[in-house]
């Protein structure tokens, strides 16, 4: 039985150019929030994902799998791997479009095990925009940027106002994106 992937994106989209203020290729990107489980520096046991702006409107991330990230003995937990992709894809949307967005749907295909001690190299890209919906996808490779593909993911993000984070969370919008001038 062959599996045919559904059309992606599933709707007609525009292919946006990166925002004029999007980071230049090679720019190292800091955490969007210090206490974020995915990219924050101040979360013990977090993923501590490191990202930079890539060429061809991509965001490149690295996630080093530690013993704290195990699911089965010696292997990364699938949920943490999905988290790494959610974080990378969220950064792809936020950094390249310079608009706040939240995850609406995330699909992850697990193609091979990711052992403790390995580094996952993830490249995220924008696939298109339809109104407030943003479609993005990513591929993760083991140990080197051209290593074997271990995971693929695609996601739907929904553009929101910064007020989303103050109405539904506790953060000042400046905590969520400290590099931007935001008037609450």
Describe the structure in your own words:
One of its GO terms (molecular function) is hydrolase activity. It comes from Actinophytocola glycyrrhizae. It contains 3 helices and 7 strands. Helix content is 16%, strand content 30%. Strands 1-2-3-5-6-7-4 form a 7-stranded antiparallel beta sheet, covered by helices on one side. A hairpin with a 2-residue loop joins strand 5 (119-130) and strand 6. The mean pLDDT is 90. The longest helix is centred in the middle third of the chain and has 20 residues, at 78-97. The radius of gyration is 16 Å and the shape is globular. The chain is an alpha+beta fold.
Would you spell out the secondary-structure blueprint of this structure?
Layout: E1 28-29, E2 50-53, E3 58-64, H1 78-97, E4 101-110, E5 119-130, E6 133-142, E7 149-159, H2 163-168, H3 173-176
Antiparallel strand pairs: 1-2, 2-3, 3-5, 4-7, 5-6, 6-7
């Amino acid at each position: 039985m062959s599996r045919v992937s559904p059309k992606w994106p599933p709707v007609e989209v525009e292919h946006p150019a990166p925002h004029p203020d999007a980071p230049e290729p090679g720019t190292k990107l800091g955490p969007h929030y210090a206490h974020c489980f995915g990219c924050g520096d101040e979360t013990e046991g977090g993923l501590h994902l490191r990202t930079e702006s890539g060429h061809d409107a991509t965001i490149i991330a690295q996630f080093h799998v530690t013993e704290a990230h195990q699911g089965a003995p010696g292997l990364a937990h699938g949920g943490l791997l999905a988290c790494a992709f959610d974080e990378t894809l969220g950064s792809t949307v936020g950094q390249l479009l310079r608009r706040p967005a939240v995850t609406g749907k995330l699909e992850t295909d697990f193609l091979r095990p990711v052992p403790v001690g390995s580094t996952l190299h993830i490249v995220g890209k924008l696939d298109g925009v339809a109104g407030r919906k943003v479609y993005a996808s990513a591929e993760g490779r083991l140990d080197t940027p051209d290593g074997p593909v271990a995971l693929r993911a695609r996601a739907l993000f929904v553009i929101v106002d910064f007020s989303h984070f103050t109405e539904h969370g506790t953060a000042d919008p400046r905590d969520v994106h400290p590099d931007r001038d935001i008037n609450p």
